[in-house]
TrEMBL record:
Gene3D superfamilies: Band 7 domain. Residues 60-229 form the Band domain. It is found in: Membrane. This is SPFH domain-containing protein. Its main location: membrane. It is a single-pass membrane protein. The keyword Glycoprotein does not apply. The chain crosses the membrane at residues 12-30, 42-65. GO terms for cellular component: membrane. Keywords: Membrane, Transmembrane, Transmembrane helix.
């Protein structure tokens, strides 16, 4: 496929041509008034149609360009360049003038159901900010560049979503869709820029706006996440309890409060761990006898 490349178009200042058209229109009107007053002359009969034709020629060549817009100029199907200068411009009337917006466009994609790296069905959507960088490619190298952008957004979402798991189920530190938002967004933007460069489109920003397990597995995954949260909380609780028991035994020995043999130390550790790790309030038992009763 031949890749088009944008180049400047040869257009003319429309304000100067507008001034010329007004002068020519005044001359044509004055000729009509002169004909009505003194009758036609040979010079007037020849010059008046020519002047009127020239006036029409100038009038149909004007076109307006708004800020951040461009006009792709063609001559009988041949690309003649792109005019980006805002204001009133003029070209020959038989040249085509296709309007192309150079402003930033914002697209919020539909939710797409994909399978992540581990095969779990996931619903995903994104927001993309894009603009036309090369008008020649946007007009001539793809059929409809706006529709092309929409389709490539969905394709890029499927590609990036399939490269990573939704969540990290292992102990390894890996990139996930849920936990590595900056990495996923940068990867999605790079994927879109690579896909859309054929249409002269540049993606300025891309980011996920929706990410969730598909409804058919959402309940099971929620229970798994709850179990992981409980396990993490228990692990933290046990680590704290072990530290507190160790501190208690060390301080009792250092201050010579009580001397315990191995059996009694084990019993004390067991009781402290039950008290510190239990979910319910413990009921103390007062020992009114000796240490070993």
């Amino acid at each position: 496929m031949t890749i088009s490349k944008e180049r400047p178009a040869a257009t003319y200042n429309g304000y100067l041509l507008l001034l010329a058209a007004l002068v020519l229109a005044g001359w044509v009107i004055s000729r009509f008034i002169s004909f009505a007053a003194s009758g036609p002359s040979l010079l007037g009969v020849i010059s008046l149609p020519v002047s009127a034709l020239l006036l029409l020629l100038i009038a149909f060549g004007f076109f307006m360009i708004q800020p951040n817009q461009g006009r792709v100029i063609t001559l009988f199907g041949e690309y003649c360049g792109t005019e980006r200068q805002a204001g009133l411009r003029w070209v020959w009337p038989w040249m085509g003038k296709t309007r192309v917006s150079l402003r930033a466009n914002n697209i919020h994609s539909e939710r797409v159901k994909i399978n992540d790296l581990r095969g779990n069905p996931v619903e995903i959507a994104c927001n993309v900010v894009w603009r036309v960088a090369d008008t020649a490619q946007a007009v001539f190298d793809v059929d409809d560049y706006r529709s092309f952008v929409n389709i490539q957004i969905e394709a890029a979402l499927r590609t990036v979503g399939a490269r990573h798991p939704y969540d990290d189920m292992s102990e390894e530190d890996e990139t996930t869709l849920r936990g590595s938002a900056d990495v996923i967004n940068a990867e999605l933007q790079a994927e879109l820029n690579d896909r859309l460069k054929v249409a002269g489109i540049v993606v300025d920003e891309a980011g996920l706006t929706h990410l969730a397990y598909a409804p058919e597995i959402a309940g099971a995954m929620l229970r798994r996440q709850q179990a992981e949260a409980v396990i993490a909380a228990r692990r933290k609780l046990v680590e704290g309890a072990v530290t507190m028991v160790e501190m208690a035994l060390n301080q009792l020995s250092a201050k010579d409060v009580v001397h315990l043999d191995d059996e009694r130390r084990a019993a004390m550790v067991s009781n402290l761990m039950v008290v510190l790790c239990g979910e319910r309030d413990t009921q103390p038992v007062v020992n009114a006898g000796s240490l070993y009763q």
